[in-house]
Tn3 family transposase (Phyllobacterium myrsinacearum), 989 residues
Amino acid sequence: MAFLDEQSRAVLFEPPEAYEDAQARYALTSEDIVFVKEHRRSHNRLGFAIQLALVRDLGRLLRIGEVPPQAVVSVVADQLGIDPAVFEFYAQRDETRREHAREIVSALELQPVRTSDYRELITAAAREAAATEQGAPIAKAVIEALKERKLLVPMPELLIRLALAGRAAARRQAYRELIRDLEQPSIEALDQLLAERAGDRSHLGWIAEAPEGAKLKNLKGLIARLEVLRSAAIPDDRRKTIHANRYGIIARDARILHAREIRRLTSERRYATLAAFVIERQASITDLTIDMFCKMIGSNRRKAEISRTERRLKEAEVLDGVALEHLKLGEALLAARASKTDLASAIAASLGWDGLVASMAAARSVVHPDRSNEFDELIKRHKSLRKLGRLMFRTFSFRSFRADDPILVAVDHLRALYGGRKLPAQVPLAFLTRKWRRCVRPNSADIDLRAWEVAVLVHLRERLRAGDIWVEGSRAWRSFEDYLLPRPIFELMRAEGRLGLALPDSFAEWRAERTATLDAKLKELAKAAAANAIPDAAISDKGLSISPIREEERDSIVALSRRLYVLVPRIRITSLLAEVQSWTKFLDSFTHYRTGETANDEAALMAAILADATNAGAERMAESSRGVTIHQMMLMVDRHMRSETYATATAVLVDAQQAHPFAAIWGDGHISSSDGQFFPAGGRGEASLDYNAKYGKRPGASIYGFLSNRFASFFSRMIQASEGEAPYVLDGLLHNESSVEIYEHATDTAGATETTFSMFHAFGYRLIPRIRNLGNRRLFVIDRDPAYEPLDALIAGTVNMDVVEHHWDEVLRLKASIAAGLVPPSVILKKLAASPRQNRLNQALREMGRIERSIFICDWLLDTKLRRRSHAILNKGESRHALARAIFLHQLGELRNRVAETMAYRASGLNLVVNAIILWNTVYLSRAVDYISSQGIIIPDELLSQVAPLPWAHIALTGDYLWNEIDRPLERFRPIRANRFNPNNFKFP
């Protein structure tokens, strides 16, 4: 790959072609103009001035026969009041150009580059290259160093050689620093990674293929790998000895290079790469092991609950029979008493003594002393859970904010027990919840140690998820405080007004503003309720009743859509992607992880993207593609395909679609929705994914996607089926890379929590969810007012402003940490919800959210347009799901890969191809409408706005994948299928 691409080379070494750039870079100072006017004749003045400006900008003089761009000539001529046309007379004698060059060099005290200057210039390049592999900034650093030393910029070839030498020096220096002072045992441990294990695999390859399914066997495998890595004794902090960007490049090398490739590297680079491998794999396997531990505890709890439910159902059948028998017996006894006959005879005649004995035995078999213990089934799994604890406590060190945290004391006791010691007479119980305390200590004297041991593991899991307890060596399982801005930095940002929030800094100011807003909304709603004037809704003593939103007529829209798409060209998905690439160059976003260069094999890159999008995988895609091998595809995957390059490429497509004039027919682009789409797991993927009863009995994951009202699918991410959607609602709005500006966002009920409402207001967004059973939701007030009386049936209570005021600073700090990009909203909100230490902070957020939700409910009830707007954008999202499902067709649409990163790439590839189809459909739908207009037929906008760019019947998604159009892109649009046009199909009332 070239050190500099054509664009970078032009920027660094050539004067600008654009007039605006020339104006910014070629402004003459008053001293320059005086200097220029010392020369006679206008053409000499102009040529001299251009040379002078060129030296100041690019550090070089005019070359022999060089003609600057017209923009540069015009900008300089305008400043001198000279006609730009006279430049053609300049330097007709080359001697004049050389004389002027010598004069400028002398006046500015410039010197040509000498060999003795090379060392300093290479050092300057190396300083810049410490942070990047990209050629442009390194070459620019050399140019700046030349200017500082008053040296003329040499020919590009020499400067590039100096920059390359600097980059090579930076690489060597980074390798040395990363392995500096490594002791001999560590070196030997690194060498051992390249040695072969049984089965013709290196230790490095074995470690890299860490299992992800939540099983005890896999947990043992992870810990075995971790022990090998720890034998190298390379701490995580060693990565901080070099620049983060440079370390990231080495770490990427460590991730994608095979053992045989690493063996061929120079000694310094080999050991640095292996050191990065150890650092990264230690962290990732630690994270994966803790995650697997938490999943296995959760899985055991779920299985215990299922077993308990099944047992209760069986017991219910037995007890039902016992109840019937005893009812019969009771009736017989009561009848005997009434008739004053012998009771024993009544028993014998009804149930019989043998029957009574059998009935009591049946009842006794299902009635247990621990019947009220809801954890009894989980405690029965004590043996398998102990195996988990033994492995985890032997391997990891846990830390807490409290030095004497009772649960960590309990962990230490269990660690000692597993090591052969006895438990002390008194074990810590302070960490237990009320339910577990009743289970562990059923009476005041005795402690059930089996239950206590299980309780330690369960509570440890919850505290880990909350961030109250963290693990040494982990990056994902850190303390809650690690995710927030340090307090001194927060206070400085607050003092300087840089929190980046749509909230006032003062609690009093916030309270006054929200009180006034909520009061006005409530009074407006109360007035409407009193007059029975709420649109399509009514409030009575029984509560709120709302009429469902009436669906618009769909048959005519479906027919119009079908007739329009008849005119759209038929196309293979490969040709569609190639055409979209020719419009947008979105593949240029997939830069090389080391050099930043674009991919040189676009067909292989496109095939790898489509392999993700269709769920085919690289091997199947290679078999179905002509001219693309799996080796070519894997090179693209390893070197160009990353989460960030996927995000950038998607943003290119989103921006292109949003900017297309026809997209305005669907809306302003400022409203969006988000929703999850479930994909079941299959094969090896089942062990890596979770269950959710909402989706049935199969494990799987949801792809949580965001769609603008112009149909741009601007963000998506994969989440476990067991996770709630609410924490992720803000992720797509704050962390997408497109230029989409969202003001309103709709979700379904799952995304509309009180905390979500609070967060949306803090970042200046309006949440407009479609809440199921809205009539069951209640309003909250800040201060009671008699004017609210018509709403009494809806008002649940008052907002606890005291808790908000008490935690105001921490609320701001939390939200400012999110705004600063320090932590994604989903990460911190999940930890916040799980943390008992942060329950008051979480309560403060919920109280703020109650205000925002109450304001929203008032708006929702009073504004039917708002209801329809939310309903419409959510329906668009559901339509987008159908397209995604059609694309994700291979392997029965199941997630069968066990590696989380691969599954995340599937979601990214799917969203990219969805956007490519939406853009292509937008363009050709526009052309079809233009053709119809040229025939004298105008389709009303209110109808056209309901025709979506989502159909795919005209796109061949399967079959052989041909990539010939990548190398030979079309020079014009494909023709509309005019022969299918029938004017009788486009008659409107």
Remarks:
- The longest strand covers residues 671-680.
- Residues 6-176 form one domain.
- The two ends are 61 Å apart (CA to CA).
- The mean pLDDT is 89.
